[in-house]
Amino acid sequence: MADDKTTTQAPAKKATRKPDPMTRIIADMKEARKALGAFGTKDHDESKRRSYDQLAASWGRDHAITGEYASGLLSLTFEAAACYKQEKRYALLQLAAAALAEVERLDGAE
Fold first, then answer.
1. Per-residue pLDDT reduced to its tens digit, 10-43
2. Which of 1, 32, 61, 91 could form a disulfide with 80 if both were Cys (CB 3.0 to 4.6 A apart)?
3. What is the rounded distance in angstroms from the CA atom of residue 108 to the CA atom of residue 80?
């Protein structure tokens, strides 16, 4: 009678998923938000809104010419400050997206 040795192999492990870098960034952002603490939410008057809109346009023109990150970020920042309440969410999401994209780029450079 022959030896009936059967070799059993462990099932192949699934490749581990590479963690989504945006998940880490958002977790870091939530921690930064906690550290930021109370943040003013009082609206400003119409003259400031016009001033912020002019600054947004100026930085937007600069960004179109230079392509510099800082000028684009400043344009989006002043745009968010110049917005009326119904436009504010969209403007803030654009600003946050630009900031998160830069963090993602920086993390990729590590």
1. 666 777 777 788 888 888 888 998 888 887 777 7
2. 91
3. 28
SS (H, E, C) the chain: CCCCCCCCCCCCCCCCCCCCHHHHHHHHHHHHHHHHCCCCCCCCCHHHHHHHHHHHHHHHHHHHHHCCHHHHHHHHHHHHHHCCHHHHHHHHHHHHHHHHHHHHHHHHHC
Instruction: Name the pTM for this structure.
Output: 0.74
Residue 39 to residue 42: CA distance in whole angstroms: 9
Q: Which of 82, 75, 24 is nearest to 53 (CA)?
A: 82
pLDDT in tens, 66-105: 999 999 999 999 999 999 889 999 999 999 999 999 998 9
